[in-house]
Specification:
This protein is an alpha/beta fold. It is built from ten helices and 14 strands. The strands form four sheets. A six-stranded parallel β-sheet has the order 3-2-1-4-5-6, with helices on both faces. A hairpin with a 2-residue loop joins strand 10 and strand 11. Helix 1 packs across helix 9. The longest helix has 22 residues. The protein is globular and about 60 Å long.
Length: 315
């Protein structure tokens, strides 16, 4: 009897997708990886190139260029396909272009008999995750967006750098739209169990206005990176691998993903970045933080912007 192996199908092998595949193989997360892309030659080359690195990987992975029929036996389909964000363009500007692209992709995946979990990374990720949920007819728990997982990582990194502590000991979240209306949850931010506000009081060199600028650097990080190198892909690729591990290894990890609200935080019928428990079945539950009044107002604004933007497109 052959043991069941994990299969991940990656749709879209551009900068984000190929970076994800590279990180996935380096961490030995799955036994099988299927690459799907309209650019057959490029994806075949990626599969060959990745296979040649298997002798250096922590565990063997079978990698091949495939098609949508390979989704039938997949545990996870990761969608990185779509138009990229251009300089000066917001993530929400991409909504119409990528919604049209996604309709065809999701129809093909569902037609294969796929019964696993969708993980969406393409921007605007909250709206496109909602679109995948609608197009697929899947339960909301099995359709997940990368949400604010990268924004949260940027936040933790910059806080760790500012206070000169290991970023892994920083516990802080960015929630809301993965984009211009996202917000930091300062009321629950801490380092080693000690509130950020307490850290500010310990030394004169720590200033509240520095933290306000720090958040702006988090929010606008994509624009700064795009100006310099044309696209962001390493950080989100590693975030997607983290999500993949949480799913395939049934970790019950709390990660800030794009999840469907059914009344949590006082809102419903929207996919948006919030902390959630992620495991082999997808999203087990949403973690509701007790937001302060300012955070509630900002979160409500983020919800309203997403709904207003996606309304005309998803009718």
């Amino acid at each position: 009897m052959i043991d069941r192996v994990n299969r991940v199908v990656l749709v879209g092998t551009g900068a984000v997708g190929s970076s994800y595949a590279f990180a996935l193989i380096n961490q030995g997360v799955t036994e099988e990886l299927v690459l799907i892309d309209l650019n057959k030659e490029k994806s075949e080359g990626d599969a060959m190139d990745l296979n040649h690195g298997i002798p250096f990987a922590p565990s063997p992975t079978k990698i091949w260029f495939g098609n949508y029929s390979d989704c039938q036996d997949a545990d996870l389909v990761v969608i990185c396909a779509g138009a990229n964000q251009k300089p000066g363009e917001t993530r929400l500007d991409l909504v119409e272009k990528n919604t049209r692209i996604f309709k065809g992709i999701v129809d093909e995946i569902v037609a294969s008999g796929f019964q696993g979990i969708f993980l969406v990374a393409t921007n605007p990720v909250d709206i496109l995750t909602y679109a995948v949920w609608k197009f697929s007819g899947f339960p909301k728990e099995r359709v997940i967006g990368s949400g604010t997982i990268l924004d949260t990582a940027r936040f933790r990194y910059l806080l760790g750098d500012y206070f000169k502590v290991d970023t892994r000991n920083v516990h802080a979240y960015i929630i809301g739209e993965h984009g211009d209306t996202e917000l930091p949850v300062w009321s629950h931010a801490d380092i080693a169990g000690r509130k950020i506000s307490d850290w500010i009081d310990t030394k004169d060199e720590y200033q509240q206005e520095h933290l306000e600028q720090l958040f702006l650097n988090v929010r606008d990080a994509a624009y700064h990176i795009i100006e310099r190198k044309g696209a962001t892909y390493y950080g989100i690729a590693m975030g997607l691998v983290r999500l993949t591990k949480a799913i395939l290894q049934n970790e019950n990890s709390v990660l800030t993903v794009s999840a469907f609200l059914t009344g949590e935080y006082g809102h419903k019928d929207v996919y948006i970045g919030v902390p959630a428990v992620v495991n082999r079945k997808g999203i087990r539950e949403i973690v509701q933080l007790d937001l302060d009044e300012t955070e509630k107002v900002k979160f409500a604004h983020s919800v309203s912007v997403l709904k207003k933007t996606m309304g005309p497109v998803l009718k």
